[in-house]
Each structure stands twice: as C-alpha cells, then as structure tokens.
Write a structure and sequence with these properties.
The protein is α/β, with parallel strands linked by helices and 275 residues long. 45% of the residues lie in helices and 16% in strands. It contains 11 helices and 8 strands. Strand 6, helix 7 and strand 7 form a beta-alpha-beta unit. Helix 4 packs parallel to helix 5 and helix 5 runs parallel beside helix 6. The longest helix has 17 residues. The chain is globular.
Length: 275
C-alpha cells in the first residue's frame, strides 16, 4: 500500500523527510532515506540550494521500498520551468509531490506561478498524482494563512503538511479549519525529536516560535525526558481525528547512530505504526 493510499484510507502512514547530498551520491541518499528502515512508506526529499535537486533525488529513489515525494519549489522559477519540471517528473514516474514556495533567498520571475496555479498545473501534467501543500500553524495571522491555503486545496491538493508539531493544541485550530472547509483533505503532521537546548534555539529561530516549556525543561534534565516528550507527541497525534499521518524529520542531515531505531521505537509504542 502506498503512502497516499494509506493516507486517504485511514491507515495513518509515516513519511520521512530528508535532505539530499550536495551532488549525486546514491549511497548517501539511500542511507538517509532508510533511516527508519521499513517504518516509513514515503520519503520527502527537501529542495535546497547547492544540493542535488529534489526532483533528481526523487527519481533516483524510484523503485525502492518507499515512495519518493518530490518537493516542487516555485520561488524564482518561471512558469515554463515549472511546467518542464512537471513533465520530467511525469515521464520518470513520480506520483507524489509537495508544492511549496521555498525559503531560500531570491526573488520571483515576472512569470512565477502561484502555488495554486502550480497545483493546477501538476494536476493536469501528472494525472493521478497525490499533491500536497504546506501549512504553517505558527503563522502570526492564522486567518490569512487559511485564505492562502484553501485555494491550493480547491485547485487539487489533497493533503497539507505542517510545520513541526510539539503540541496538538497549537495545530488544532488550523487542522479544524482545513477539515471544515474540505472534509476530504488529509493533514500530515511533521514531528521531530529535539533533544538539546542548543537545537531548540536554532529551531525556534528558524520557524519563529517557542517550544513548550515542559519540553525545554526535559532537555535541561537530560535526553531521556526529551525522548519521552517526543513519544507522547506521537501518541497524541496518532489518537487525534484531526491528523491522518505524520512526517518525521531530524535536525541533522545524517542523524547520529541510534537515532533511527529510537524513533522507530517511539513510532511503535505510540501506535503510529498500524498493521
């Protein structure tokens, strides 16, 4: 069963989000993609400047034990460039993509399509593909964030992927709004283990939020408490009717030894891995 089939069939699938290497290095890409072993049914491939493109890395992962999710970044790209990428993806057999603006520096072309337009193009050029959009539950203006998101879903995106979740209460208003507007849309919550205060501060700066004080206190008292918080977060999301699947991300491009098995342990104990 593919990630998309499980997502829309109530099976609560697990994805892994990775960063590709700086150049085509199949062994490095595969090592990162297999961090969770067989626990992940899809691998989201981040698009970042100075690295192997998400599209090339996703094509490289085709035919493996998990479904690659191409991150189609539109910032700075002309409409013809976006269309060419979509055609290449369709030819290669990519069947899942996440349409995203991207957070790298640089301005748009005069012909850069909106994400809503990009979703519509993807629906046309890659028929049958599962298309996602992103949701920032920490946006200062939540109403504006929803006004931005809903046209993407109406254009053909069938799921939204969130920023890292540390409390269901923070995600709940946005997830409820998505479900109310389009009941068939799925919500994929990103989750990551954050084990040190240094890592916490970097993450807080990057996404513009402050981690819950209980988690911060757990980091101060040692890694065990932080892992327990991670496990609790997974269990809360797995039990919520607002969340249909999760995407695991680590702060490191190559996670330290033992992190993958410990994440899988948490996935199992929390009920995220369902038979």
């Amino acid at each position: 069963m593919t990630f998309a089939e499980a997502l829309h069939g109530g099976r609560f699938p697990v994805a892994l989000e990775i960063t590709p290497p700086q150049k085509p290095l199949p062994a490095v890409l595969l090592r990162r993609a297999t961090l969770l072993g067989g626990a992940a049914s899809a691998v989201n491939v981040i698009q970042r400047p100075g690295r192997q493109s998400s599209l090339d890395a996703s094509i490289e992962l085709l035919g493996g034990p998990f479904e690659p999710v191409w991150h189609l970044v539109t910032r700075g790209a002309a409409r013809t460039e976006v269309r060419a990428q979509l055609q290449a993806a369709a030819t290669a057999g990519i069947r899942q993509l996440l349409c995203i603006r991207g957070d790298h520096a640089g301005g748009d072309s005069v012909d850069t399509p909106t994400i809503r337009e990009t979703v519509a193009m993807a629906r046309e050029i890659v028929p049958g593909a599962t298309i996602g959009a992103t949701l920032n539950q920490y946006a200062p203006d939540s109403a504006a964030a929803m006004r931005n998101l809903l046209p993407k879903l109406q254009a053909g995106a069938s799921y939204v992927q969130t920023q890292p979740v540390f409390e269901l209460a923070t995600l709940r208003p946005a997830a409820e709004a998505v479900k109310a507007a389009l009941p068939g849309a799925a919500v994929v919550a990103m989750v990551m283990p954050v084990l040190t205060l240094v890592a916490a501060e970097k993450l807080e700066t990057r996404i513009g939020m402050r981690l819950p004080e209980r988690l911060r206190g757990g980091m101060a008292s040692g890694g065990m408490a932080a892992w327990e918080y991670f496990d609790e977060t997974l269990a809360t999301l797995a039990e919520s009717p607002l969340v249909d699947g999760i995407a695991i991300m680590t702060l490191e491009m190559d996670a330290p030894e033992g992190i993958g098995p410990r994440i899988v342990q948490g996935l199992r104990s929390s009920g995220c891995l369902r038979s």
